[in-house]
Amino acid sequence: LCALSFAQEKPSTYMVAQRDTCDLFMDVYEPVAIPGDTLDRPTILFVFGGGFIMGRRDDPWVLPWFKLLNENGYRVVSVDYRLGLKGIRMRFDLFHLIQSANYTKTAVDMGVEDVFASVRYLADHPELGVDMDNIVIAGSSAGAMISLSCELEACNRTVRAEILPEGFHFAGVMSFAGAIMSDTGKPEYKRTPCPQLLIHGTRDGAVAYGKMGFGRWGMFGSSYLVEEVL
Known about the structure:
Helix content is 29%, strand content 22%. The protein has helices at residues 2-7, 63-71, 97-124, 142-156, 222-229; strands at 12-18, 23-29, 43-47, 76-79, 135-140, 172-176, 179-182, 196-199, 211-214, 217-221. Strand 5, helix 4 and strand 6 form a beta-alpha-beta unit.
């Protein structure tokens, strides 16, 4: 991994927003020019994983994938978000399930807010060359949960989505072990969602593959979303 990382072109870094606890940055990895290429490839907006307690936009394990995407003509934008569960003790016994679910939902919401700030930054800086009608959002684990929720909120034009450009929509979602965390029951889209690629292990012990819920609370995983929602 280190050899691939050092061989990769250094990204351009931009400060996107300032929060009470931290500043948020994005790294832009430019694609390699492919002679004779005429395909209109999307920009990949990547959201890292780490259980909302750790992880970085430049985690070494993901840099080889960025390099592969760049070599195939794709621009990659890797973004920061606040780690909403860092320092919080999560308890999953019967008496603390709702509290832990609330903590997780809050962490997802914070992530969505921060990713939308990055989308707004890209829209406000056309010199970066990103086609706002051709952005595929991708994420792993916690990042996948944020990515799926970003598409849901963009389709439903929630309060957090008001920062997005008028008429903005993602061109696609790539979710690696993701789910939608909801405190209002089954997720519902007010407009048709974009195409989504959901990759998820059936034995995932951290993020539900199917549905895990109680009352209005629920974690709706890849299998449930494909069969019941999308």
